Amino acid sequence: MLTPDIKGDLLSHGGGQSGVALVSMLLLVALATVLASAIVQEQQLVIRAAGTHLDRGQAKQYAIGGEELARQILHQDYLNAPEKDYLGEEWASQDLSYDFELGGVNLQIIDLQARLNINSLSKENPRKSASRAFFFNLMEVLFLDPGAVDLLEDWIDEDSNIRPNGMEDFEYLSLEPPYRAGNSLLSDVSEAALFLDSKTFRTLKPYLVSLPSPSSFLNINTMGAPIIQMLNNELTLEAAESIVIFRDSEEGFDTLEEFLQTPQLAGLSIPRELLSVKSSFYEIRIIARYREQFSYLRSILYRNSSDGSSLILKRDFSKMFDSFLLPSSGGADRGA
Predict the structure, then answer these.
(1) Which CATH class is domain 1-115+223-336?
(2) Strand-pair category, 116-117 with 208-209
(3) Residue 284: beta bridge partners?
């Protein structure tokens, strides 16, 4: 028979075991709760990351769709008026914005033949001599060293003959870091920063483009006043601006002769062999939005002047241009 003291000890010991068991259970429940919360949070992060990835992919598809839309606009433009291209047409509109489900697309189509093709200095251009003269005039108008023209030509040509103010492999290999001359057409104007000093490059860049066709023309219906002024160093900027105002009010010039007959150009020597009223090379800038994700696309398009068909020559999904705002963001700022 258990004495009261022994019985009390057993009861006390059993109560202690129950307390330990209860505390252990509570700790297990708390640990399970923490683990479950961590798993839920991790799953939410995974779901959110997957959603962001999907939204980003959808925005990219919207951007590609915007590129196709631009192609259709340019093709329709060819069907409507194949004889000339000017800034009053739909493709040049400053309000090419379109809304889609949960997103939108903004387009900007730029005529690349409104700028001087840096590759026109290639020997493959049958009008190289006229282009070279234009480059020298460009340097004079911009108060730049005309020796930069020799640098441009030496970089493009395939030989190792150095022009008076040019450079070839030997000179470039002595630089740090060393590199060789391109000896080919420039794929992008930014390549000129490899052989032009920073001031010359920054000054020239707004007026230049690198097109795969060395023999491309300048479009008199899309050129800005500074480019028109550079057609002859005796032409003032004010006179060039008055030509632009008249041109745009008349829906562009129908022929090159109309342009050359403007009073501002009377008596001036103009390199007409470099000029045209039509264009084939365009840059398409696209900003697409889906939900909170944005996608940027810069495409270079060639449009065949005989049938209006088009070909994408280059795509770049990096943000390589000054952005313009989507309508939902409060407006549009669409600089060229």
Answers:
(1) alpha beta
(2) parallel
(3) 109, 299
- For the chain, the residue count is 336
CA dist., res. 236 & res. 228, Å (int): 9
| Assigned token pair, 103 | 């997103």
Residue range 37-50, pLDDT digits in tens: 777 777 767 666 66
Cβ-in-10-Å burial (0-12, 13-18, 19+) of 26 comes to exposed
| Identical fold, 1-115+223-336 and 120-207 | no
pLDDT band at 243 (very low <50, low <70, confident <90, very high): very high
User: pTM surpassing 0.85?
Assistant: no
Q: Return the H-helix or E-strand segment holding 3.
A: none
| Distance in angstroms (rounded) separating the CA atoms of residues 91 and 113 | 14
Contact 309, 289 (CB under 8 A): no
Burial of 224: CB neighbours in 10 Å, binned 0-12, 13-18, 19+:
middle
Please report which residue ranges of the chain form alpha helices under DSSP H.
Answer: 4-80, 128-141, 148-156, 169-173, 198-204, 225-229, 237-249, 256-260
